Amino acid sequence: MIGIAGMAAPIAAWWVGAAGRDNLVIGPWQTSLSTGGVDADMYTRSYVAITALLALNRNEVIYFEARRDDDGRKLSASCNYDVTGGPIQSRWWSITAYADDNFLIPNAANRFSYNIRSLRTAPDGHYSI
User: Fold this and answer.
1) Whose C-alpha in 9, 99, 127, 129 is 20 to 30 A from the C-alpha of 116?
2) What is the model's pTM?
3) DSSP, residue by residue, 42-67
4) Where residue 73 falls among pLDDT bands split at 50, 70, 90?
5) What is the distance between the alpha carbons of residues 55 and 68, in angstroms, rounded to a whole number?
6) All residues at 6 or more sequence positions from 69 whose CB lies less than 8 Å from its CB, including other chains
């Protein structure tokens, strides 16, 4: 943890970020309401730094993540998942799968992300990945 004084801050930042004291939760998806905001405290900023998240300004982006499935089980690379949804009211969005180390997951299809332009949707705007 070069650049962060002592071990207490990174450990506390990881715990606070993981615990989500200001999280918005929708099913298995959650986001921190302060990530990317000017009111983010030192723990949120440290969590962003140690997880290598490029947090843009809150006015531009909201980052949701899911680490568990709809039944509460931890996500696993040995399982297949369906991600389904409907129209999202935004200029742009994407869905990307990351490994536990927050890096992209190598795969035979060499496919790392779906976004508003690359994802085929039904006529009503719903999608299934």
Assistant:
1) 99
2) 0.66
3) HHHHHHHHHTT-----TTT----B-S
4) very high
5) 22
6) 28, 75, 79, 81
